[in-house]
Design brief:
This protein has 17 helices and 17 strands. The protein is an alpha/beta fold and 489 residues long. The strands form 3 sheets. The chain has a 9-stranded mixed sheet with strand order 16-15-14-13-7-12-11-8-17, with helices on both faces. A 6-stranded parallel sheet has the order 3-2-1-4-5-6, sandwiched between helices. A two-stranded antiparallel ribbon has the order 9-10. Helix 1 crosses helix 2, helix 6 runs antiparallel to helix 16 and helix 10 packs across helix 11. The longest helix has 19 residues. It binds NADPH dihydro-nicotinamide-adenine-dinucleotide phosphate and the ligand O=C1O[C@H](COP(=O)(O)O)[C@@H](O)[C@H](O)[C@H]1O. The ligand O=C1O[C@H](COP(=O)(O)O)[C@@H](O)[C@H](O)[C@H]1O binds next to loops.
Length: 489
């Protein structure tokens, strides 16, 4: 059983409570934490959206969502009933000052004296400022109310600034919880443990020993029901600016002075600020953007992105970047980052390739050591290294691997990332949330890429759905004498 801290009674006010995120992720996450004993029975989940629903109708939707998104073995009727007792609904347009704020106040004021108040914005980010202002004008923000902001925080530095300013007028920075669900993943947090709890890794974690780092988040799914959002975003904004740069920060950061939020965030932001800016001389060779075309996934034919959309588009469903970090630790080490929809397999991982051994002791050059940190699925770590080949009397070598599968190792259910993050916001535990300067530094670094792509300075490449991506991405690594992980075997 995961060790988790029982939290104080809380009122979770979710704006966007009828939406995909709430149904698929937030309600199931809160349900799981109730089953684990972390949520007190007096806690309340107050859904709000414009749809005119009675409380009982919303409770029925919430039950349906749990039925659909909680594993059937974990769906327990009694606990579901206890959960639904906590669920309320207020029909409200969060962007309008003259909407039903009185309805929200009534629910909030009823038996709420000692409750921690959390506002979760699961709506379009351009509403965040207006919702904050209305909450303030209605006097609903208490001294220690937290606000959780969903990504994306803007579509570029300017809009991120505007959102942060607008929310920051009413919530102090240490009560603003910018969510990045990758940081809620156990295996992403594990990067900190692997690096700093093992002298073996800590001592070789630098340009002296590391040849390259690959960070991949690949998906089999396409844009599903989110085409309208995705086509305005693309893989760079959707996955790289936030999730993958956060992962890169954990892989590359200097040892933080402590595991306190600001120490970890200081270490991360200094990585973001040390990323070498891409410019017109490096953009064409260090960035690849592509769209999937018709292909086959698991025996089924899959339409191309443009056919799915039904119109032309300049939006990438694949991104691969070559980044460098200008610090003594990482001088000249390429960090390859890629993310895509409709790849051959779902895989999120970090692959660290070590430099070749300088020895000339053996008849053949030893293979490079490779550390693979599997974020998902099959969470775990594998370490490829050389042993003596017992069938070779001339000191021939054999490449083998130590492979740890966490689910076997710990025999626990791997929680969804949202579970922990939702309750961390109640606890007021900000380590796994993003500070404002991190968001802004990340937007600054991707800005030249967005600009060059918008001007078509880097041509759009193509890849068949169900493949590992475009040839151009293979070439990007080949220029450095490297290959993507799937081609290493
Ligand atoms: N879905 C996902 O997997 C992910 C989503 N996100 C982010 O989460 C947020 C929500 O996404 P998602 O759930 O997919 O979006 P949906 O479009 O499915 O849901 C939007 C929600 O907002 C409500 N809403 C819209 N306008 C208002 C308003 N003026 N006042 C109050 N409520 C309003 C809608 O209900 P109604 O129409 O009844 O008002 C609905 O409940 C977005 O910022 C998205 O980028 C981030 C990561 C993943
Ligand atoms: O934030 C997002 O993440 C998901 C991928 O998350 P994962 O936990 O399944 O790796 C992605 O599908 C979505 O487009 C993006 O908005």
């Amino acid at each position: 059983m995961t060790q988790c801290h029982k939290v104080a009674p809380f009122d979770y006010v979710i704006f966007g409570a009828t939406g995909d995120l709430t149904m698929r992720k937030l309600l199931p996450a809160l349900y799981y934490r109730l089953t684990m004993g972390q949520v007190p029975d007096t806690a309340r989940i107050i859904g709000t959206a414009r749809s005119p629903l009675k409380r009982s109708e919303y409770q029925t939707r919430a039950r349906d969502a749990l039925k659909r998104f909680v594993k059937s073995d974990d769906f327990d009727e009694d606990t579901v009933d206890r959960f639904l007792e906590m669920v309320h609904y207020v029909s409200l347009d969060g962007s309008k000052p003259d909407s039903n704020w009185e309805g929200l106040r009534e629910v909030l004021n009823h038996k709420a004296e000692d409750h921690v108040r959390v506002f979760y914005y699961a709506t379009a980010p351009d509403l965040y400022g207006a919702i904050s202002k209305n909450l303030h004008q209605e006097g609903l923000i208490t001294e220690d109310s937290r606000v959780v902001l969903e990504k994306p925080i803007g579509i570029d530095l300017k809009t991120a600034d505007e959102i942060n300013e607008a929310v920051g007028k009413y919530f102090k920075e240490n009560y603003v919880f910018r969510i990045d669900h990758y940081l809620g993943k156990e295996t992403v947090q594990n990067v900190i443990a692997l690096r700093f709890a093992n002298p073996l890794f800590e001592s070789v974690w630098s340009a002296e020993h590391i040849e390259s780092v690959q960070i991949t988040a690949g998906e089999v799914v396409g844009v599903e029901g989110r085409a309208a959002y995705y086509d305005n975003s693309g893989a760079l904004r959707d996955m790289v600016q936030n999730h993958l740069l956060q992962v890169l920060c954990l892989v590359a950061m200097e040892k933080p002075s402590s595991l306190q939020a600001d120490d970890v965030r200081d270490a991360k932001v200094s990585v973001l600020k040390s990323l070498v800016p891409l410019d017109s001389s490096t953009l064409p060779t260090s960035t690849v953007r592509a769209q999937y075309t018709k292909g086959h996934i698991k025996g089924a034919t899959v339409e191309g992105y443009l056919e799915e959309l039904g119109h032309e588009s300049n939006t990438e469903t694949y991104v691969a970047l070559r980044a460098e970090i200008d610090t003594p630790r990482w001088k000249n080490v390429p960090f390859y980052i890629r993310s895509a929809k409709r790849l051959k397999a779902k895989v999120s991982e970090i692959v660290v390739t070590f430099k070749p051994s300088a020895t000339n002791l053996f008849p053949a050059q030893p293979e490079r050591n490779v550390l693979v940190i599997r974020i998902q699925p099959d969470e775990g770590v594998s370490w490829r290294f050389n042993v003596k080949n017992p069938m070779d009397d001339d000191f021939g070598l054999w490449e083998t691997a130590m492979d740890v599968h966490f689910e076997r190792e710990f025999a626990v259910r791997y929680p969804d990332a949202y579970e922990r993050l939702l309750l961390d916001a109640v606890r007021g535990y900000p380590v796994l949330f993003i500070r404002r300067d991190e968001v802004e530094a990340a937007w600054k670094w991707v800005a030249p890429v967005m600009d060059a792509w918008a001007k078509n300075e880097v041509p759009m490449a193509h890849y068949a759905a169900g493949s590992w991506g475009p040839e151009e991405a293979r070439q990007m690594l080949a220029r450095d004498g490297q290959v993507w992980h799937e081609d290493m075997e």
